């Protein structure tokens, strides 16, 4: 593969990976406008975000076996078509209930892109390069939190929130065309993969019984839940608690994404000297300590806008370093059923994200404490799962170049 082909492939896979986050981030500045138009509260609007998380979690379990049975591209095309139609439907929603339902369907479509892109990393690149590839995908993925909320804020202010979903439909159409024209067939369909419930469940159970998978998949998913706590709670924190405008919120969100993106790229440098397990250990320790400090500051009433921005930046950086290493370590033991493994990993991430967003939406009183506490709990639980789980890994599969074994 030439250098040009390599980066073209990274760009397409990164765009597929970014579709769901773009769908999450772009409408966040419109929460207040949606609440006003649909005659509901901002907390109720946040349930449309929860519906999206639930949809993408459940949908990934659906697409995993389909990607292994029919190859990567056909299920991808179907999912993207569903996404486009649901996005148009969201733009015409006249009640919060219909918006929540359509966001769920939109998520079902978008997660085809998420699962396919992760599985294709396992298909197209050597295992030892996967952590670096995931870090590069996060660089492309970084366009979402940097561009989406900023664009969404301006579009909402100028034209209304419904136009945000029309733009997302157009984006889905572009991604579908790029996938059809330039994405290679990376996996031969396997008719031996059964789509009956019992074999599918057995296949997922076989994946989750792998100690290296459950250790790093659950560690990464719980750590990633802190990101969803931030995403679901930041509109309330910044626009209601601290009173910033839709446009300013979009710029703050974009700026904070630098912590997440920059850390993921720092990870590619750190992998030259350390393996993924060593990096995760330090990142999670920092995550837990910073989370506790953030929660204590918010609870004591000492939090102001600059302090909140600093805490969010540092915590997102911890997630940005943890995520690519946890993803690559989770998938390293698999080849034949990489689609199911990637689907299960993604479902865990979105499932924990949905859970934490529901909990945060239950707090009607404007406060930064629920978000800060959610991130602290995510950091502490992830650290605990990491230390407990890695004791059960007998023969680890190395992923970083130069690793003979993972550090214990």
UniProtKB/TrEMBL annotation:
Can you tell me where the transmembrane regions are?
A: 45-64, 76-94, 100-121, 133-155, 161-183, 213-231, 251-270, 282-303, 309-331, 343-363, 369-388
What Pfam families does UniProt report for this protein, alphabetically?
A: MFS_1 (PF07690)
**GO BP terms:** xenobiotic detoxification by transmembrane export across the plasma membrane
Domain named Major facilitator superfamily (MFS) profile: residues: 9-391
Question: InterPro entries per the record?
Answer: Efflux_drug-R_Bcr/CmlA, MFS, MFS_dom, MFS_trans_sf
The annotated topology with respect to the bilayer is:
Multi-pass membrane protein
Major subcellular site: membrane
Keyword annotations of the record: Cell membrane, Membrane, Transmembrane, Transmembrane helix, Transport
Recorded GO cellular component terms are:
plasma membrane
Task: State the source organism's domain of life.
Answer: Bacteria
Cross-referenced CDD domains: MFS_MdfA_MDR_like
Q: Which GO terms describe its molecular function?
A: sodium:proton antiporter activity; xenobiotic transmembrane transporter activity
Q: Where in the cell is it found?
A: Cell membrane
Keyword hit for Lipid metabolism: no
- Report the family membership: Belongs to the major facilitator superfamily. Bcr/CmlA family.
What protein name applies here? DHA1 family bicyclomycin/chloramphenicol resistance-like MFS transporter
What is the species of this protein?
Taibaiella chishuiensis
């Amino acid at each position: 593969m030439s250098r040009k082909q390599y980066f073209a492939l990274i760009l397409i896979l990164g765009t597929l990976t970014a579709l769901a986050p773009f769908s999450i981030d772009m409408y966040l500045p419109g929460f207040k406008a949606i609440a006003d138009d649909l005659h509901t509260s901002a907390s109720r609007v946040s349930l449309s975000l929860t519906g999206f998380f639930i949809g993408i979690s459940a949908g990934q379990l659906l697409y995993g076996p389909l990607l292994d049975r029919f190859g990567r591209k056909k299920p991808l095309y179907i999912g993207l078509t569903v996404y486009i139609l649901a996005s148009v439907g969201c733009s015409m929603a006249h009640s919060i209930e219909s918006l929540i339902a359509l966001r769920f369907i939109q998520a079902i479509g978008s997660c085809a892109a998420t699962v396919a892109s992760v599985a294709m990393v396992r298909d197209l690149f050597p295992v030892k390069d996967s952590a670096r590839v995931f870090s590069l995908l996060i660089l492309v993925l970084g366009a979402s939190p940097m561009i989406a909320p900023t664009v969404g804020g301006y579009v909402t202010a100028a034209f209304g929130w419904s136009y945000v979903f029309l733009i997302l439909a157009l984006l889905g159409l572009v991604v579908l065309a790029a996938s059809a024209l330039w994405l290679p067939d990376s996996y031969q369909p396997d008719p031996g993969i059964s789509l009956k419930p019992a074999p599918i469940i057995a296949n997922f159970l076989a994946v989750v019984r792998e100690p290296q998978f459950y250790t790093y998949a659950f560690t990464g998913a719980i750590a990633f839940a802190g990101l969803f706590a931030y995403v679901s709670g930041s509109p309330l924190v910044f626009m209601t608690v601290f009173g910033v405008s839709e446009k300013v919120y979009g710029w703050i969100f974009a700026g904070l994404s630098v912590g997440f993106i920059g850390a993921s790229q720092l990870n590619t440098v750190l992998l030259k000297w350390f393996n993924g397990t060593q990096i995760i250990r330090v990142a999670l320790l920092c995550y837990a300590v910073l989370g506790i400090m953030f929660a204590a500051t918010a609870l004591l009433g000492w939090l102001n806008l600059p302090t909140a921005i600093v805490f969010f930046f540092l915590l997102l950086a911890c997630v940005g370093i943890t995520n690519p290493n946890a993803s690559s370590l989770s998938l390293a033991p698999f080849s034949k059923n990489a689609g199911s493994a990637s689907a299960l990993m993604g479902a865990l991430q979105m499932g924990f994200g949905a859970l934490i967003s529901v909990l945060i939406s239950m707090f009607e009183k404007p406060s930064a404490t629920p978000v800060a506490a959610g991130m602290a709990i995510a950091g502490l639980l992830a650290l605990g799962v990491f230390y407990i789980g890695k004791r059960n890994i007998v023969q680890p599969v190395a992923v970083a170049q130069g690793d003979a074994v993972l550090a214990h």
